Amino acid sequence: MDLNPAGNRSLLYTLLCAGGLYLLYLLSPILTPFLFAAALAYLFDPLVDRLEARRIGRTWGTLLVLLGLTLAVALLVLILTPLFQAQTRMLMTQIPRLVEWGQEGLLPWLQSRLGIDLAGSQTEILDWLKGHAGELTKLTAYLPAVGNQGLALLGWLANLLLIPVVTFYLLRDWDRLVAGTGRLVPSAMRAQVAEVAREVDAVLSEFARGQISVILLMALFYSLALWLAGLDYALAVGMVAGILVFVPYLGVVVGVLLGTLAGLVQGGDLATLLPVWVVFGLGQLLEGMLLTPWLVGDRVGLHPVAVIFALMAFGQLFGFFGVLLAIPASAALLVAFRHLKAHLDPD
């Protein structure tokens, strides 16, 4: 019997990788905080290394970085809270107007254009509800589902609280964890895996630096431009729109929505809203035609359609944090597949 040890090892490694990926898929509901913490540790490890080079202990450097990050998040929350409070109050006050518009405008329009008389059917609807009151009481059977939603909310909060704890330990021990992971790689593959890891690190570092620069510049542009346009909540709207530019078109869509609502709270006329829309139109041109090509460029190498697919796929697997990790994770997979193709192609 002719055995091929090299072929058997390759098959074993392939099966182990496939099993590991399947295990990650099964554990995806609990992996979200760990993935997000790993991303934070990767991003801030160079800063901790610089503090360590200045003779600040690794633990104290990690605590200082996490403290600064916590203060930044707290500042962002303080800036955004008044905006959402004002818009919530505005929406609540607009509900009676919407009901009045529906009764006096929408219902007559439906009757005149489509022949649908919902106003005349109100009595029939009430009689139907009274006749099926017994069946409607069966809705109480779904109360356990409401309880499950409450448990899911508690689980989400627990994951949120878990992120800083996991980030602290990963960031403090990052260098040792990377070295230990490298020692787990079989010696025959260690050089090739190290080369792939270095290339992935270079791609992600350039992408992260470029994307952070775009976010900061767009947040500054939107905040300043909306302030010049006379919007009361310019800083909050500008920061939200700027932060969300890492997702294609999400920043401008959310920015236009929040800016429009803020304009309605402030005045509500076209003279208030038109400058806000112009600002976001100019911002989209500035980001898409100048800042992103200049600062980010083609460092990731993903087509816009592939970016959208990656965002949806990782969001389906890992929820909201999967959206945050979609582009860098896709970039890493692209580098790995490129090396795999080069290895499998004949010379």
UniProtKB/TrEMBL annotation:
Cellular component annotations (GO), alphabetically ordered: membrane
Family: Belongs to the autoinducer-2 exporter (AI-2E) (TC 2.A.86) family.
Protein name: AI-2E family transporter
Main location group: membrane
InterPro entries: AI-2E-like
Domain of life of the native organism: Bacteria
Annotated TM spans: 20-43, 63-84, 151-171, 212-229, 235-258, 270-296, 308-337
Keyword Nucleotidyltransferase attributed: no
